[in-house]
Specification:
The structure holds two protein chains of two kinds. Chain A is of the alpha+beta class. Chain A contains eight helices and nine strands. In chain A, strands 1, 2, 3, 4 and 5 form a five-stranded antiparallel beta sheet that branches. Chain A has a four-stranded antiparallel beta sheet with strand order 7-8-6-9, covered by helices on one side. In chain A, β2 (37-41) and β3 (44-52) form a beta hairpin. The model of chain B is unreliable at 1-16 and 123-127 (pLDDT under 50). By secondary structure, chain B is mainly alpha-helical. Chain B has helices at residues 21-30, 46-65, 75-78, 82-126. The chains are: A alpha+beta, B mainly alpha. At the A-B interface, β1, α2, α3, β4 and β5 of A face α1 and α2 of B.
Chain lengths: 267, 127
């Protein structure tokens, strides 16, 4: 066991079965560009990095997480390691910022929760998470009712009323479009959920983060049996129909971030 | 932070869209196995907080560009607090004065109670 003089903590990326192939890990670099190592106990391995507490201790970490640039870099590094282990075998991704004081405490956690973690590993084996987002297609000109061109003496007074009527029509049409978008989103989610082992509907993403102007009508994840992947992708393509007014975007393959709830709620 | 096609974190398979920063943040911040660990941090609303901060900064700059800058002359927001501090001092003086009056009333009440007790005792001794 190496002794380190600067205070270090242990950042966790994921938990995998001990049988997982660790051949590729030596080449990985994680958060803070740290190398990755394995912490083993109870037939499980925690994928980890030693990280300086000067940057990853409680106060500096809290501060750093509020720095969007630091957060983005760290999130990407975290996900990169999780992704690499997921490509090599079944992986339980950790949420960001799970830090222990040393390897022994991680071993204790693995032993403590061995049963639930093994059960989760079983549930996730041979399955992959896919993401789906549905955006409302931008409104075309045909939705805006044309104003009647009234020239002449009555035009002044008529113009105000005409404007209000036009706005009312636009808002009604807009509300109707939102309602039908939500209806289609629900139908799409239901149809795809049938093809999946499990599915979760998430909050729509903040438009400032997506940098998209269209409304997000559906944001969901699906845990799909690996040998049904093509069937699932074909269903998404089929559901991506102009007539619904929604444009579908599929992302993946993802490590199963969305499907890691423990049966027993323990913090 | 640009997510370009050279990024090794990009995910695509058979024509699927590459992962955006938003997709990744949503998963690592809000999903994944949640176990407390030894270092306690609160991840709730971090995304919203940083985005909101950026929005506020952006809108203040935009507003200034078109000549809207009322907050720069507001004594509270602009940090010119002399007036407010004077007001605070005055209020505090008044509160202290009221409290003193209240205390002396209370003291007066307990003094009266003691006087009553003293009067009773000699009567008991006599009996």
């Amino acid at each position: 066991m190496t002794e380190v003089t600067d205070p270090f903590g242990v950042w966790l990326y994921a938990v995998t079965p001990a049988s997982a192939d660790r051949a590729g890990w030596a080449a990985l670099r994680g958060v803070g560009n740290a190398p990755v190592h394995a912490i083993e106990a109870a037939g499980l391995v925690a994928v980890a990095s030693w990280v300086p507490l000067a940057e990853f201790g409680e106060q500096p970490l809290t501060r750093n997480l509020e720095d969007l640039d630091w957060l983005a870099a760290t999130a990407l590094a975290h996900d990169a390691v999780v992704g690499a282990t997921a490509r090599a075998g079944v992986t339980i991704p950790m949420r960001l910022a799970t830090v222990y004081l040393d390897d022994d405490r991680v071993r204790a956690m693995l032993s403590d929760r061995a049963e639930e973690l093994h059960s989760m590993v079983e549930r996730l084996t041979g399955r992959t998470e896919w993401g789906l987002k549905a955006y409302c297609r931008p409104a075309g000109d045909e939705r805006r009712p044309r104003s009647s061109g009234d020239a002449g003496a009555g035009a002044q007074r008529g113009a105000g009323t005409a404007y209000l009527l036009r706005r009312k029509k636009e808002l009604t049409a807009s509300q109707a479009a939102d309602d039908s978008a939500e209806r289609y989103a629900r139908e799409i989610h239901a149809a795809l959920s049938i093809l999946a082992i499990d599915s979760k509907r998430h909050r729509p993403q903040d438009p400032k983060l997506t940098d998209r102007r269209e409304r997000m009508a559906l944001n969901a994840s699906y845990l799909v049996e690996n040998d049904r992947t093509d069937e699932f992708a074909a269903a998404v393509a089929a559901l991506d129909d102009e007539r619904c007014g929604l444009r579908l975007e599929m992302t993946g393959p993802w490590p199963p971030y969305s499907f890691t709830e423990l049966d027993e709620v323990r913090v | 932070m640009a997510i370009g096609s050279n990024s090794p974190q990009q995910r695509e398979s058979g024509g699927h869209q590459p992962a955006s920063l938003g997709d990744i943040l949503e998963r690592v911040l809000d999903k994944g196995l949640v176990i407390a660990g030894d270092i306690r941090v609160n991840l709730l609303d971090i995304e919203l907080l940083t985005i909101k901060l950026r929005l506020v900064i952006a809108s203040l700059e935009t507003a200034r560009e078109v000549g809207i800058n009322w907050w720069e002359n507001d004594p509270w927001l602009s940090g010119d607090r002399a007036e407010l501090e004077e007001e605070n001092r005055e209020l505090r003086r008044r509160i202290e004065a009221l409290e003193e009056r209240g205390e002396s009333r209370a003291l007066g009440a307990s003094d009266e109670a003691e006087e009553l007790e003293d009067e009773e005792e000699p009567e008991q001794e006599k009996a």
